[in-house]
Design brief:
Layout lengths: L1 H26 L11 E5 L5 H19 L3 E3 L5 H10 L4 E4 L1 H10 L4 E6 L7 E6 L21 E3 L5 H13 L13 E2 L3 H10 L4 E5 H9 L8 E6 L7 E4 L3 H5 L3 H11 L5 H10 L4 E3 L6 H9 L5
Parallel strand pairs: 1-2, 1-3, 6-7, 6-8
Antiparallel strand pairs: 3-10, 4-10, 4-11, 5-8, 5-9
Helix pairs in contact: 2-10, 3-4, 4-11
């Protein structure tokens, strides 16, 4: 009897454990469980990780409060990784540059552009030069031919403001990447890094996002005796928020519009809103749509970045 009783107790414990495990699994199973699904946000790593973590931590808190769902920032290693994570569903809402946003939408049918900063509708890049290069400010685009034979660095290979549009404007003015020293440009990986490699003299000239350049100058991370702007590009459309097509299915009808509204409501009148917008280098977010980036797609195809 003792053996049977012990077996009965053991079976009861095992059954109880299975029931508890099933309950825990069910609670963490996402939309069908009792917990809210998590909205995962991301961004192309165009600046130093410390600044990005501070920015997107604040933004995650802001969106979580406005949307009443958990929001988590997930950093990625490079630009293509952001596009890939969006395509696979690892990221739900991503801050893309013009080119990566187009690439992401082409790989994720139904994805939707929600918003951009006020500065993104007419964005610009700058070409900077090391003082020892002898390069002087350029007044007209046709003077970009002075870059032939020079050591030039772009940022990321998939950057709109740090590669795509600077290369496009170079090409429009008679300068191809094959004309550069070594027959090709360098790639620093980010806008901050481009400033560093030009300031150090590793490269004579670099192209980057003007907003990042201004931010670095303001924060005292640029030595004006070593590096300066020699040319500013014409304007183009750039950064933007893109949402996956399944947000309403996962979070409820109308959720995508709620996300857009939450972004547009971020205001400098609140301490957190002021911090977010300051880190984004903008006064506000404004509505944007897929068609705003048709020109970027055309340039991307022209330069072989979109096939």
């Amino acid at each position: 009897m003792l053996v049977r009783e012990r077996r009965a107790v053991l079976v009861a414990c095992l059954l109880t454990g299975i029931t508890i495990a099933a309950t825990v699994t069910s609670c963490g199973s996402g939309p069908t469980g009792t917990e809210s699904p998590v909205l995962h946000i991301g961004a192309i790593p165009d600046q130093n990780p410390e600044k990005l973590n501070r920015l997107y931590s604040s933004l995650s808190d802001e969106l979580s409060d406005q949307l009443t769902v958990p929001v988590q920032y997930v950093p990625v290693s490079n630009y293509p990784a952001a596009v890939s994570a969006f395509r696979t569903g690892s990221l739900d809402l991503v801050w893309f540059g013009g080119l990566t946003g187009v690439q992401a939408r082409l790989q994720t049918p139904g994805a939707k552009v929600l918003a951009q900063r006020d500065i993104d509708a007419k964005f610009t890049s700058v070409f900077i030069a090391n003082g020892a290069s002898g390069l002087r400010p350029i007044s007209n685009g046709d003077q970009l031919t002075n870059l032939k034979g020079r050591r030039l660095s772009f940022g990321s290979e998939s950057s709109t403001s740090g590669r795509l549009m600077p290369q496009y404007f170079m090409s429009q003015n008679g300068v191809e990447t094959a004309d550069l020293a070594g027959g090709a440009p360098g790639f620093s990986g980010s806008h901050d890094a481009t400033i560093a490699v030009v300031q150090s003299g590793a490269y004579e000239v670099g192209a980057l996002n003007e907003q990042v350049w201004r931010s670095n100058v303001k924060d005292g991370r640029v030595d004006p005796n070593k590096v300066s702007v020699i040319w500013r590009t014409p304007t183009y459309v750039d950064y933007h928020w893109v949402a996956r097509p399944d947000l309403d299915e996962r979070f409820g009808n109308g959720f995508t519009k709620k996300v857009q509204s939450a972004l547009l409501k971020i205001s400098p009148t609140t301490p957190r809103g002021e911090t977010i917008l300051e880190l984004f280098g903008a006064a506000q977010f404004i509505p944007a749509q897929n068609s705003d980036y048709d020109k970027i797609e055309a340039v991307g195809r022209q330069l072989g970045k979109i096939r």
